[in-house]
Amino acid sequence: MFKISGNFFLIAFAIMIFSGLSSAQISPGDLTKAHANLEGMSNCTKCHVLGEQINNSKCLDCHKEIGQLVNHGGGYHSTSDVKGKDCWSCHSEHHGRNFRIINFDPDNFDHSKTDFILTGKHEKTKCRDCHRSKFVKDGELKKRSKTYLGLSSECIACHEDSHQGTLGNDCNSCHNTEAFNPAKKFNHSQTAYKLTDAHIKVECIGCHKIEKKNGKDFQLFKPVEFGTCTSCHKDVHLGKFGKDCTTCHSISSFKNINRQSFDHDKTIYSLIGMHKSVQCNECHKESITAKLKHEFCFDCHSDFHKGQFTGEGKIEDCSSCHNEAGFIPSLYTIDKHNKIEFQLTGSHLAVSCQGCHKKTELWEFKLVETRCVDCHENIHGNELSEKFLPKNDCTSCHSTERWSAIVFEHDSTDFKLLGKHIYVSCRKCHYVENINKANEHKFVSLSKDCVTCHKDVHFGQFSSEENSCFTCHSFNDWKPVKFDHNKTKFTLDGGHKNIDCSRCHKTVKEIGNIFVKYKLEDFKCAACH
Q1: 498 alpha carbon, distance to own chain's centre
Q2: Residue 194 burial (CB < 10 Å; 0-12/13-18/19+)?
Q3: 200: number of CA atoms within 13 Å, CB side?
Q4: CB contact at 8 A, 326 and 273
Q5: What end-to-end distance do the CA atoms of the chain give, in Å?
Q6: Which helix (H) or strand (E) is 513 found in, with range?
Q7: pLDDT averaged over consecutive 10-residue blocks of the chain (529 residues)?
Q8: What whole-number distance in Å separates Cα of residue 235 and Cα of residue 230?
Q9: Do 177 and 188 contact (CB within 8 A), yes or no?
Q10: How many whole angstroms separate alpha carbon 515 and alpha carbon 453?
Q11: Alpha-carbon span 87 to 77, nearest angstrom
C-alpha cells in the first residue's frame, strides 16, 4: 500500500466538504477483490491510521492467523526474508480489482523457510496434496478454498495412524520421511524387551501379529506379553520339563541344548564320543521324548557300505571297524587285513585305504580281484609277451617293496648282457622319451642292433655288413680291439705297419657330417704318396 500522511486526510476532508466530491474520486485506485468490501471513505481507517503511515498492526488485526505465527516466531513471516518489513511492501493495494496482491509461486517456493522442512518423499509431494482444507484444524481457515496456513507439523495431521494411538504421536521416533516401511529409526534395544541372539533374526510379524481392530488390519506392537518363553513359543514338551525353558535351551538357538542342565546319562542310552556333539533333533526328529532304537549303529545311521557287510541273515555291525570317537580312522588294523586272502606287504603298508577301496564314489571292500592290474595300470601294454607277464602277473619282475626295484633275468631273453652292458640301467635301453606322445618302455619292439642305442659315428660306412660293430668292437671296450687290418682289402706290411692310422684315414666332412674316412676306394700308391 502507499504511505499516506495525516495531512493528506485533512486535505481530503476539506475537499469533500467544499467541493462535494465522492469518495471514489479521492481514492488512489480500486481495491483488490479480496478487500473490495473495504471500499468507501468510511472504511479508510480500517486499514489506515490518520496522521501516520500504514501500520502492520492494522493488517494483523484482520489477518489474525499471520499475527499468531509472528507472535510465536513461527511461519514464513517470521523468517529473515520478511521480519521487520511493512506488509504493504509485498502486498500493495489500490491497483485494481484484478491485481495479484499475493504474488506467491508455489512451484518455486523454498519450503525450508517455513517451520516444516521438506525431506525424503515429502520433496516429491505436490503442494495441494498436503495443503488441503481437510487437514486444517482452524475453523475459519478451513472455510477458505485456497490457503497454505493452518497445517500442523505432526505426522498424524496428514497421515492415518495405523497404530491407532497405541504408540503415541511421535512418529519420528521410529520412521523417517524416506519410507514408512521399514521403520529405520526404530531400535528394539530401547524397548522393555531387548532382542538378543536368535531373536534378532526373527521377522517382526513373528511376534507382532496382525489382527482386526476397529474394522481395520492392525499390527499389535504394544502391549505384548514377554514374561515367559511360552508367551510366544509353544511348549512342545507339554509341561513335562517345567515352565523355565532356559534350563535346557538358550536364546541363541532352540536346538542348542544346555547340556550342563540336561544329563543324558540318566537315560537308557549314554552319550559318548562324537555323540556328545550331535544336536538333539538329529536323533529325536519327531519328539524329544519318543523312545528310539539304538541296538545297532544303522538304527540311526544309514548303511554307508550298501550291504557289503550284511547278508545270509548275519549282521556285521559298524562297531567292528568304527566307534563313537569318529568314523575315521577305522579300527580295522593291518593285522586283521593280513588274516584275509590279500595280505599287505612292502609298499602296500603305506597305501591309504582309499587307494584300493575307494576308486569311485562308493567304498568297496568285498573285492574279488587281487591281481596287480586290478589296481595298477599295465604301462607296458603289448611290449611284454605272455612269457614275461604270465596272466598279467607283475611279480615276475616287480615286488611290493618298491616298484622301481626290478628282479629280472635278462639271459632268458634273446639278448644276453655282456661286458659293460651288465652295468647299464634298464631305462638306458628300454625307456623312450617321446615329444608328441606319452613316454613308454620298449621291450618286444626293441631291436638288438647296436645302432638302436648307440650313435653310428661312422655314418653308414659299414652299414652293408651284418653285425658290423662286432667286427671291430666288443662289449668290454669301445676301442676297436677286434679289428684286423690284414682282413681288409689292404694288408699292412713293410713300412705301413708302423704308420699312424690318421695318415691314411683322414677326417672329412660330407653332407654336413664330420667323421673319419675308413672306407677308402683308391688303394694306389699315388693316392697317398
Answers
A1: 89
A2: exposed
A3: 5
A4: yes
A5: 146
A6: strand 513-516
A7: 41 41 62 90 86 84 89 88 90 92 87 90 90 84 82 88 91 91 90 90 90 92 88 81 79 76 77 87 77 84 82 69 87 89 89 86 78 84 86 86 86 90 89 76 87 88 77 88 88 89 89 90 85
A8: 6
A9: no
A10: 19
A11: 10
User: 417 near 410, Cβ under 8 Å?
Assistant: yes
Q: Are 423 and 483 in contact (CB under 8 A)?
A: no
- Predicted confidence at residue 523, as pLDDT, reads 86
Quote the cell numbers at residue 69: 505465527
Q: Give the type of residue at 476.
A: N
Q: How many Cβ atoms from other residues are within 10 Å of residue 506's Cβ?
A: 10
Please give the single-letter amino acid code of residue 259: R
Q: Whose grid coordinates read 500522511?
A: 5
Q: List the domain boundaries for the chain.
A: 6-150, 171-226, 374-446, 451-528
Contacts of 310 (CB under 8 A, 6+ apart): 303, 316
pTM summary value: 0.43
Q: What pLDDT, on a 0 to 100 scale, did the predictor assign at position 364? A: 85
The continuous run of DSSP H or E covering 502 comes out as: helix 501-504
Q: Cell numbers of 368, please?
A: 574279488
